[in-house]
């Protein structure tokens, strides 16, 4: 899951000033974690403690009120009586990577991804985006090759994954919907040669860079077997003690290649 967090931090400074090149510094003094990281850690915390996703998201999310949440989500977060708000935004997919790492079967991954989305993003496209991102992580860490991942995700979710990063980049804009972010994030992974290359692909699309790179980074970490040491070390320095603790405990329990929750 540190791959997703690294993608968020790397993409954070380009969200407000999108770029369309893969040649950029991975980190900058302004690089920081955003709501993508906070909520990814919240989902991981829920899995570790076997408690409802909504409970962990509200508890941890409230401790980081300035993380950059969207308007509808922050209203939900601090509401006394929260209700799902029929969102199909990419927030459902950005937080889901721990599920693809923790659960042992495709059916469990899809079920848990739905649970992690529907308390806010109960629109069918919001749920679909979360399931697609989580399943891509699951397939990647299960040893499937890229063409199998492409085919399985495309067939199940009717996403167009036959495009290329170069082709998408020419016309892509700032998109926050699952249906216009999740397929592009998956293509950024499929078109990559390494973890770093995948994240550079995602940021270079010129869209919602932190979230695209978060989704792509989670899949790429699972497929390539981890995150390069220098990137991981920089990410660790960006996190609070609480968030880093969640990452470390989760990684010890669900290290790539180990058994998963049954």
What does this structure look like?
With 262 residues, the protein is mainly α. It has one domain: Orthogonal Bundle (ADP-ribosylglycohydrolase fold), CATH 1.10.4080.10. The protein is 60% helix and 0% strand. It has 15 helices and no strands. The longest helix is centred in the middle third of the chain and has 18 residues, at 124-141. The chain starts with a helix and ends in a 9-residue tail after the last helix. Mean pLDDT is 95; it is low at 257-262.
Task: Report the portion of residues in β strands.
Answer: under 5%
Overall CATH class: Mainly Alpha
> Which superfamily, in CATH terms, is the homologous superfamily?
ADP-ribosylation/Crystallin J1
| Strand and helix order | HHHHHHHHHHHHHHH
Assign the CATH architecture. Orthogonal Bundle
The multimeric state of the shown protein is single chain
The major β-sheet equals:
none
Radius of gyration using CA atoms only: 16 Å
* Computed structural class: mainly alpha
Count of separate DSSP helical elements: 15
Number of domains: 1
Please report the distance between the alpha carbons of the first and last residues: 19 Å
- Provide the CATH topology: ADP-ribosylglycohydrolase fold
Shape: globular
Mean pLDDT, to the nearest integer, reads: 95
Helix content: 55-70%
Number of extended strands: 0
Which regions have little confidence, pLDDT < 50, spanning 5+ residues? 257-262
């Amino acid at each position: 899951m540190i791959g997703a967090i690294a993608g968020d931090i790397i993409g954070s400074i380009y969200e407000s000033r999108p770029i369309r090149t893969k040649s950029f510094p991975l980190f900058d003094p302004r690089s920081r974690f955003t709501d993508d990281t906070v909520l990814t850690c919240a989902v991981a915390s829920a899995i570790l403690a076997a408690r409802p996703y909504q409970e962990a998201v509200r508890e941890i999310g409230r401790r980081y009120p300035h993380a950059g949440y969207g308007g509808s989500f922050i209203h939900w977060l601090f509401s006394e009586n929260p209700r799902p708000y029929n969102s199909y935004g990419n927030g459902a997919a950005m937080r889901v990577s721990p599920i693809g790492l923790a659960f042992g079967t495709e059916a469990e991954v899809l079920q848990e991804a739905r649970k992690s989305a529907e308390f806010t993003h109960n629109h069918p496209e919001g749920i679909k985006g979360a399931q697609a991102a989580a399943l891509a992580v699951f397939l990647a860490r299960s040893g499937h090759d890229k063409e199998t991942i492409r085919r399985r995700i495309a067939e199940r979710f009717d996403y167009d994954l036959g495009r290329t990063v170069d082709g998408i980049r020419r016309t892509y804009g700032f998109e926050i919907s699952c249906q216009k972010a999740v397929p592009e994030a998956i293509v950024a992974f499929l078109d990559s040669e390494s973890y770093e290359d995948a994240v550079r692909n995602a940021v270079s699309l010129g869209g919602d860079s932190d979230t695209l790179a978060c989704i792509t980074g989670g899949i790429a970490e699972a497929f390539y077997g981890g995150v390069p040491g220098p990137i991981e070390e920089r990410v660790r320095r960006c996190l609070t003690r609480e968030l880093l603790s969640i990452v470390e405990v989760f990684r010890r329990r669900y290290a790539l290649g180990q058994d998963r929750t049954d």
